[in-house]
């Protein structure tokens, strides 16, 4: 077994030990389980594998052929994955995995397994926990149009790319019941989804009545995350006050606040201005959603969350400066998480200026891709160092015909890009293959961190005994060209068209069943289960709880002030209370005079008078008695 | 003016080349050329030896004496009317008889060559002719030894060996600094709060300003929501004309925003000489504006060429925090900083700058009170934003630890918005940023409410009127904390206390510079003088001074405004109520707008020219982008929301709207596949 373990590492190199010396490929970290023995693996390249490196060439290429024959194996629930290197977020080691009834039953060498078990050969590959895509919108309609990839097509594509679980956003119509939307989504997903799924709830219009629904969702329905919009003015947007209120509730419920961070007010104004300028194409979208606007909202969201002592999760980090704000806030101790998406990690926003309208429109999403071409690299770096934690896809696809609804007005283009299928491959290509990140970190950002944040861990996000058998056998060396012609989606355009990526799933196992093998997808519509999530994920809430204990403010005990008090004429704090401040519309008509509140003052005949501004000093100045009458008012 | 500068250079060449040693004095920079700034440093050591020793002698001996005198005068100096004021002037002249004068202030000698003629001239209301001799003229760009001749309220000559008429009053300043009078950009001398006005009105406030070396103030006109801006402006102007003792100008605060305001703004900018307007991001439900409104205000003011000033705090969150703090049972002044945490200031500054960048408009942040807010401004400037920051006397000299004082009156005296940061390192940090130019202007935000007025909020900190003193102490503290500690040189001191303000608000070079043709607002500054701040000796009518007991190095010896000597140390103030003039300011100040104008020319946005999209278009049912054109989604709709309105006119298929079952996919019917191969070159994938 010890020999076998060593084989896969060199299978790719065809035994050419020398060629390896010059390559810049990252050395996979090999831990044999001990805390301090990770150097051991380093020997293998030099000595032991010299002979063995020739033999496994067959091993690595063969499984694709051999696995095609027992397709009936997908029906059996018992599997053994042999010879792969298991990569979790904390360590990598060589072991076999025995799967039964959709869960991982045994991990180790020389496993005792019943007969008739299907064997999956993973020599030369790494075995990783299936990816978790925390941000998809497979059911959210825009302008009455449903996305072209629904739960069935979307999850199929997810599995094809090595993602075995998605968390989809439930977007109720503003004013509609959250529970109603939740039931609707769950119903559709139960019928359509091919992989396990869970749901985020989006709060599209806040009012106090939602509290009960939120409580019920958290306590009974297994939803522990709520998305709040800072953009989409007059539709979904929430004011700062509302966000503060919601954050307080979300914290008390033990859930996670997610925000779509963009300043909707500014965007709205810029959209108007650009349309006035006569810019109607997709480039208008990126011009009116400038990076700063995203950054500003991220900053504000973090400030509000800090005040409310609520954990914050920023969806779709698309620009360098927004990512920087998150990184800085984390350095100040904020409990905040950032999620770059496939599109922002894999491409940039220069395509908005494409002469091809259909192509330019395909990139339209909010926040938009940054036109700065160094953005993907930068985000991958932050992802590698832990300043950003989770990758998602933000998948929401609309066909070209649907996008063409906005052909004369970019604000009508339905927003969303693909990425559910390409996510793992792009992170591997951009971060692992370039040496920014190791395999363990790769597992962390594609799966484990998401599982921890949303309280799915260790059921998901880890290869361990007792965990769900969502397993991906990943071939780091395979290269593939992304194209709309070959992807599992229904959209005609893939925004990563033509991009060559290293790393691809060879076998994907979801719920203990092989769903991808030998390039063939074998999915069952509706086989996905809803995975409920409990409140108070430890990964987040341990700190929050400790802080709320600490943060009690205390007043200063003083005697009562007994000095002279100026006589206030009308005690209303200020002129008439407008319903909300970030909200109120311009009065439009003539300004209103300050109303006199006759009930609040004891001296009702006077209000603010026109001559209030003229000082009446002689009458107003009240000098404290000489020497001071009390110890409270005397100046020390 | 460039002529005269060249002249100075010629005249000063001699001492520069003669002197040659090094000095540690930070404030003697004398830059003749671009790269010769070190030369000037020598002067303090060699040529001026005598002058300096004389000056030092002067301060050391009569300190206690002069303070007593000052006390006497302040006690007698609380005249309420103009007649009393003139009385005081008589007292002043009495004191300045030659015999006593020498005792009082040997450092600065005032000669009256022609007997009492000057005094008579002064009494007739004519400005006197003054020759300031032997001083070191410090502007923001260079320092030099020169005499200054003043006539008719203007500076007529600057240089050595001036030819002046005989009957000229001569001020021998013996090496003290001659600096342009300070400009205090942020005062609220008439801002009503809950119907009560500050105890320092234009008269007392401007008196205090002059006593501290500030010769011009820019006050905030603060109309209440719903009031007419023009009426408020006239009210302020009228009051200031009657009372103000120094030149003044006005900012107008926008309490509300609607299209009707635009006309008033246009009048104010084009006819009334106002080029700066303050908007509030705080004070929820009264002054606060939404981001959309800010965007509109910024866009409009940019067209007018005005400077946008911001009170930057997140009002929504403050309202929430206030509620929370009150619900915890905290009602004392410590609730104020607890409900106005530093982050909310920094957040609002960040947002304001973002909006400013989008609109491409200069942004001026009033009252920078915390390190994080200042850092935000710094970073924005690094990225090229046109943004200015104004720390105030209070934030530069003290910190917010006093909010927790056991003495309610003391704690309440510090209440201002944004509050002083409880972090005791804040003043140092702000001075560092001032010294390096990341912050540009020092204001005072002087808004004085007496203890009994503050006591309105004795049971609820949210009712405490907001405002601290600082108009008199402003220059002194910047000198003490920045120049005397070596953070800043004297030129930068002039820049932050006077010149930068004049530039940003388009008063330059009339104000903020000692040059031929500028207004004769001149301060003779003694760097070695020390003074202990106390409410007993201050000009303000407040019974509490937040800087109580602090010792301050540096202070004005003589203050000249409009060509008249209004303050001489040891003789008190001789001000004339209502002598201040309103200084109109033109729009489009170069200092703020040159970059903006260029950027708007360069930054024009262009679309991509494409052929018409001719592919298939999905058939959208009649749903406009924003389903409900409700007034604003940001207001929290506590009641039931109205269903989305169906606009029957916008669609040709009017019977369908957003339906309940829109969310249920009808994929088979909806999907429109592009024709294979693509019908046109526009839609196929290139």
Structure keywords:
heterodimer; A: 636 residues; alpha/beta; seven-stranded mixed sheet; seven-stranded parallel sheet; 21 helices; 18 strands; 33% helix; globular; disordered C terminus; B: alpha/beta; ten-stranded mixed sheet; 22 helices; 17 strands; 15% strand; disordered N terminus
Structure described in brief:
Chain A is α/β, with parallel strands linked by helices and 636 residues long. Chain A is built from 21 helices and 18 strands.
Residue share in β-strands of chain A: 15-25%
Number of strands of chain B: 17
How far is the first residue's CA from the last residue's CA of chain B? 63 Å
Please report which band the strand proportion of chain B falls in: under 5%, 5-15%, 15-25%, 25-35%, 35-45% or over 45%.
15-25%
N/C terminus separation of chain A: 83 Å
How large is the count of helical segments of chain A? 21
Give start-end ranges of low-pLDDT stretches of chain A.
Answer: 1-75, 571-607, 614-636
Strand order of the largest sheet of chain A: 3-2-7-15-16-17-18
Rg of chain B computed from alpha carbons, rounded to a whole number of angstroms:
29 Å
Task: Give the proportion of residues in helices of chain A.
Answer: 25-40%
Question: Whole-number radius of gyration of chain A?
Answer: 29 Å
Q: What characteristic shape of chain B results from the CA principal axes?
A: globular
- Tally of contiguous helical segments of chain B: 22
Q: Please describe the biggest sheet of chain B, giving its number of strands, its sense, and whether it closes into a barrel.
A: 10 strands, mixed
Number of strands of chain A: 18
Biggest chain pair interface = A-B, 137 and 137 residues
| Uncertain stretches of 5 or more adjacent residues of chain B | 1-106, 113-125, 623-643, 650-657, 665-675, 677-686
């Amino acid at each position: 077994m010890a020999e076998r373990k060593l084989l896969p590492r060199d299978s790719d190199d065809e035994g050419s030990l020398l060629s390896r010396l010059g390559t810049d490929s990252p050395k996979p970290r090999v831990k044999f389980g001990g805390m301090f023995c990770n150097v051991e693996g380093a020997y293998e390249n030099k000595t032991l594998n010299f002979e063995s490196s020739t033999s496994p060439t067959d091993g690595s290429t063969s499984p694709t052929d051999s696995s095609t024959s027992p397709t009936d194996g997908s029906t059996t629930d018992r599997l053994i994955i042999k010879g792969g290197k298991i990569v979790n977020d904390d360590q990598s080691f060589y072991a076999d995995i025995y799967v039964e009834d959709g869960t991982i039953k045994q991990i180790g060498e020389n496993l005792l397994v019943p007969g008739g078990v299907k064997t999956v050969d993973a020599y030369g590959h790494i075995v990783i926990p299936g990816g978790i895509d925390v941000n998809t919108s497979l059911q959210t309609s825009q302008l009455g149009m449903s996305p072209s990839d629904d739960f069935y097509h979307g999850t199929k594509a997810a599995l094809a790319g090595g993602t075995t679980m998605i968390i989809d956003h439930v977007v109720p119509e503003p004013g509609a019941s959250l529970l109603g939307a939740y039931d609707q989504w769950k119903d559709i997903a139960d019928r359509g989804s091919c992989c396990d799924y869970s749901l985020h709830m989006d709060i599209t219009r806040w009012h106090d009545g939602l509290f009960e629904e939120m409580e019920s969702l958290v306590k009974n329905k297994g939803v522990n995350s709520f998305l709040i919009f800072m953009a989409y003015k007059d539709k979904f947007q929430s004011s700062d006050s509302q966000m503060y209120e919601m954050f307080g509730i979300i914290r008390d419920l033990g859930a996670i606040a997610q925000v779509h961070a963009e300043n909707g007010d500014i965007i709205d104004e810029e959209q108007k201005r650009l349309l006035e300028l006569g810019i109607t194409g997709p480039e208008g979208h990126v011009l009116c959603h400038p990076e700063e606007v995203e950054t500003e909202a991220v900053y504000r969201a973090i400030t509000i969350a800090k005040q409310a002592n609520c954990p914050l999760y920023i969806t779709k980090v698309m620009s360098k400066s927004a990512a920087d704000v998150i990184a800085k806030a984390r350095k100040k101790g904020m409990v905040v998480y950032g999620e770059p998406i496939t599109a922002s990690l894999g491409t940039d926003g220069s395509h908005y200026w494409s002469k091809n309208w259909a192509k330019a429109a395909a990139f339209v999403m909010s926040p938009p891709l940054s036109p700065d071409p160094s953005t993907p690299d930068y985000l991958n770096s932050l992802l590698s160092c832990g300043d950003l934690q989770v990758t998602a896809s933000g998948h929401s696809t609309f066909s070209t015909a649907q996008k063409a609804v906005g052909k004369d007005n970019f604000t009508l283009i339905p927003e969303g890009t693909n990425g559910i299928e390409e996510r793992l491959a792009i992170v591997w290509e951009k971060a692992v293959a370039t040496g920014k990140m190791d395999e363990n970190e790769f597992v962390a950002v594609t799966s484990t961190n998401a599982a921890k944040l949303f309280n799915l861990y260790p059921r998901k996000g880890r290869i361990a005994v007792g965990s769900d058998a969502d397993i991906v056998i990943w071939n780091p060396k395979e290269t593939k060209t992304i194209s709309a012609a070959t992807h599992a989606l229904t959209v005609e355009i893939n925004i990563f068209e033509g991009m060559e990526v290293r790393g691809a799933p060879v076998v994907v196992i979801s719920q203990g069943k092989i769903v991808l093998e030998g390039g063939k997808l074998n999915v069952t519509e509706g086989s996905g289960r809803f995975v409920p999530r409990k409140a108070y994920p430890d990964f987040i809430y341990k700190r929050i709880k400790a802080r709320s204990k600490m943060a009690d403010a205390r007043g200063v005990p003083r005697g009562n002030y007994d000095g002279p008090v100026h006589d206030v004429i009308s005690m209303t704090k200020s002129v008439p209370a407008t319903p909300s401040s970030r909200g109120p519309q311009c009065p439009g008509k003539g300004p209103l005079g300050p109303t006199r509140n006759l009930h609040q003052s004891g001296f009702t005949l006077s209000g603010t008078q026109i001559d209030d501004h003229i000082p009446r000093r002689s009458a107003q100045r009240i000098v404290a008695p000489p020497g001071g009458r009390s110890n409270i008012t005397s100046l020390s | 003016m460039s002529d005269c500068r060249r002249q100075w250079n010629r005249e000063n060449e001699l001492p520069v080349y003669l002197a040659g040693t090094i000095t540690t004095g930070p404030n003697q920079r004398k830059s003749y050329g671009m790269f010769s700034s070190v030369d000037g440093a020598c002067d303090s050591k060699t040529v001026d030896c005598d002058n300096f020793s004389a000056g030092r002698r002067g301060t050391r001996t009569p300190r206690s004496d002069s303070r007593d005198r000052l006390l006497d005068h302040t006690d007698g100096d609380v005249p309420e009317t103009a007649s009393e004021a003139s009385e005081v002037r008589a007292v002043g002249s009495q004191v300045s008889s030659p015999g006593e004068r020498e005792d009082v202030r040997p450092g600065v000698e005032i000669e009256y060559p022609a007997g009492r003629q000057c005094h008579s001239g002064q009494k007739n209301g004519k400005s006197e002719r003054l020759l300031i001799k032997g001083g070191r003229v410090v502007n923001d760009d260079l320092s030099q030894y020169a005499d200054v001749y003043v006539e008719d309220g203007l500076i007529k000559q600057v240089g050595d060996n001036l030819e002046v008429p005989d009957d000229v009053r001569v001020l021998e300043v013996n090496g003290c600094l001659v600096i342009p009078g300070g400009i205090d950009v942020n005062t609220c001398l008439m801002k009503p709060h809950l119907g009560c006005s500050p105890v320092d009105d234009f008269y007392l406030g401007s008196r205090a300003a002059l006593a501290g070396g500030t010769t011009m103030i820019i006050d905030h006109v603060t109309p209440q929501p719903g009031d007419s801006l023009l009426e408020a402006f006239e009210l302020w102007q009228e009051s200031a004309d009657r009372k103000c003792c120094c030149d003044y100008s006005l900012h107008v605060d926008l309490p509300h925003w609607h299209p009707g305001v635009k006309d008033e703004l246009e009048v104010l900018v084009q006819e009334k000489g106002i080029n700066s307007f303050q908007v509030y991001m705080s004070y929820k439900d009264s002054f606060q504006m939404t981001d959309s409104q800010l965007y509109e205000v910024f866009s409009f003011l940019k067209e007018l060429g005005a400077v946008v000033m911001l009170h930057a705090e997140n009002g929504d969150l403050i309202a929430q925090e206030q509620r929370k703090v009150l619900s915890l049972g905290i009602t004392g002044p410590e609730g104020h900083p607890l409900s106005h945490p530093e982050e909310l200031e920094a957040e609002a500054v960040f947002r304001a700058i973002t909006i400013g960048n989008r609109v491409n408009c200069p942004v001026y942040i009033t009252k920078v009170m915390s390190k994080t807010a200042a850092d935000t401004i710094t970073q924005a400037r690094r990225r090229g934003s046109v943004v200015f920051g104004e720390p105030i006397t209070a934030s530069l000299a003290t910190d917010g630890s006093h909010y927790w004082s056991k003495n309610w009156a003391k704690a309440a005296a510090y209440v201002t918005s944004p509050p002083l940061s409880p972090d005791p390192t804040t003043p140092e940090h702000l001075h560092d940023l001032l010294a390096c130019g990341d912050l540009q202007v020092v204001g005072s935000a002087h808004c004085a409410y007496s203890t009994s007025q503050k006591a309105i909020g004795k049971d609820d900190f949210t009712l405490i009127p907001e405002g601290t003193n600082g108009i008199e102490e402003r220059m002194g503290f910047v000198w003490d904390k920045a120049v005397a500690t070596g953070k800043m040189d004297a030129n930068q001191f002039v820049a932050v206390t006077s010149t930068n303000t004049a530039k940003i608000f388009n008063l330059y070079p009339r104000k903020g510079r000692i040059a031929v043709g500028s207004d004769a607002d001149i301060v003779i500054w003694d760097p070695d003088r020390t003074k202990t701040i106390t409410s007993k000796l201050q000009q303000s009518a407040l019974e509490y001074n937040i800087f109580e007991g602090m010792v301050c190095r540096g202070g004005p010896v003589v203050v000249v405004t409009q060509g008249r000597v209004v303050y001489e140390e040891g003789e008190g103030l001789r001000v004339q109520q209502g002598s201040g003039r309103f200084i109109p300011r033109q729009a489009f100040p170069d200092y703020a707008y040159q970059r903006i104008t260029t950027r708007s020319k360069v930054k024009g946005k262009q679309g991509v020219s494409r052929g018409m999209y001719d592919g298939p278009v999905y058939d959208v049912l009649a749903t406009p982008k924003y389903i409900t054109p409700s007034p604003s989604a940001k207001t929290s709709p506590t009641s039931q929301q109205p269903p989305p309105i169906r606009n029957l006119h916008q669609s040709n298929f009017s019977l369908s709207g957003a339906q309940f079952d829109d969310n249920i996919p009808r994929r088979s019917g909806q999907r429109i596949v592009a024709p294979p191969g693509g019908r046109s070159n526009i839609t196929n994938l290139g």
